[in-house]
């Protein structure tokens, strides 16, 4: 997760320019009262990713994999599954004009944060295969061919491909989701999309959310605890920037929305 929401330009969703509840986003209690969300059917991990399917996780920025599906990943770690993680960018654009977090430092720091987070989810080093593409943060669409070539070289028929939703409201999330969708179709892999920014800008009954293909993955207490610990590994995103006065990228309300006892997936 990097920066703020951007205009959405996906097949599922029209343009989004402002969060539905103002700059702080949709409150957690509004989501908890959502009839549309309550009506979403549950799905188990084995139904979502039947063993022994290979799993490829495509994260636009370091932390998106944990924010969107950290509980799911904790379940895979406990199952003994191996995963491939494609880090599309290094998230170096998360702190513009910062002397505390210049881009070069962010690149190395955020990679390490992601590796620490994976260990907190329960993965051993041998269970995770990393591919760091180092594409420019905020410019994934301009490098679509490079991302597509990398994914097509990794995917096999029957794989499960996890990535951010094509309508998530952030340019990199949407570009990554669109490219992943094309690659999954071409490779005969199963596409699993997760919302990250949509929890911020969407309203509780929002028709722009693809409810018709939504499922909830309930998280056991241990999975949720591991996800919270993994999110805590992204220290660069959790504190104000003293050099610019900017607020944390991952504010308290943002974290509350993303640490619910389930994860929403679109199939």
What would you give as the CATH superfamily?
Answer: LmbE-like
| Major beta sheet summary | 5 strands, parallel
Structural class: alpha/beta
Global outline: globular
Number of strands: 7
> What is the helical fraction, as a range of percent?
25-40%
Q: How are the strands of the largest sheet arranged?
A: 3-2-1-4-5
Counting copies of identical and different chains, the oligomeric state is single chain
Give the SSE string.
Answer: HHHEHEHEHEHEHEHHE
**Spatial gap, N to C terminus:** 22 Å
* CATH architecture grouping: 3-Layer(aba) Sandwich
Strand content: 5-15%
Mean pLDDT: 93
Number of helices: 10
Unreliable residue stretches: 4-17
Which value, in Å, is the CA radius of gyration?
Answer: 17 Å
């Amino acid at each position: 997760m990097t920066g703020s929401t951007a205009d959405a330009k996906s097949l599922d969703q029209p343009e989004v320019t402002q969060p539905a509840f103002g700059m702080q986003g949709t409150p957690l209690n509004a989501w908890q009262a959502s009839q549309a969300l309550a009506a979403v059917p549950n799905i188990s991990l084995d139904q979502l990713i039947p063993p022994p399917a290979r799993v490829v996780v495509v994260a636009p920025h370091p932390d998106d994999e944990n924010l969107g599906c950290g509980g799911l990943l904790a379940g895979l770690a406990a199952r003994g599954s191996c995963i491939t993680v494609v880090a599309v960018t290094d998230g170096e654009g998360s702190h513009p004009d910062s002397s505390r977090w210049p881009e070069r430092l962010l690149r190395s720091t955020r990679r390490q944060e992601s590796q620490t987070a994976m260990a907190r989810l329960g993965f051993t080093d041998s269970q995770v295969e990393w591919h760091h593409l180092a594409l420019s943060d905020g410019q994934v669409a301009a490098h679509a061919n490079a991302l597509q070539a990398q994914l097509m070289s990794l995917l096999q028929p029957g794989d499960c491909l996890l990535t951010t939703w094509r309508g998530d409201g952030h340019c990199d999330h949407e570009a990554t989701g669109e490219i992943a969708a094309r690659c999954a179709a071409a490779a005969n892999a199963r596409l699993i999309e997760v919302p990250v920014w949509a929890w911020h800008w969407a309203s509780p009954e929002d028709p722009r959310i693809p409810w018709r293909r939504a499922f909830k993955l309930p998280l056991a207490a241990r999975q949720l605890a591991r996800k919270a610990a993994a999110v805590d590994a992204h220290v660069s995103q959790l504190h104000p920037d003293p050099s610019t006065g900017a607020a944390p990228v991952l504010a308290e309300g943002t974290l509350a929305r993303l640490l619910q006892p389930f994860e929403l997936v679109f199939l």
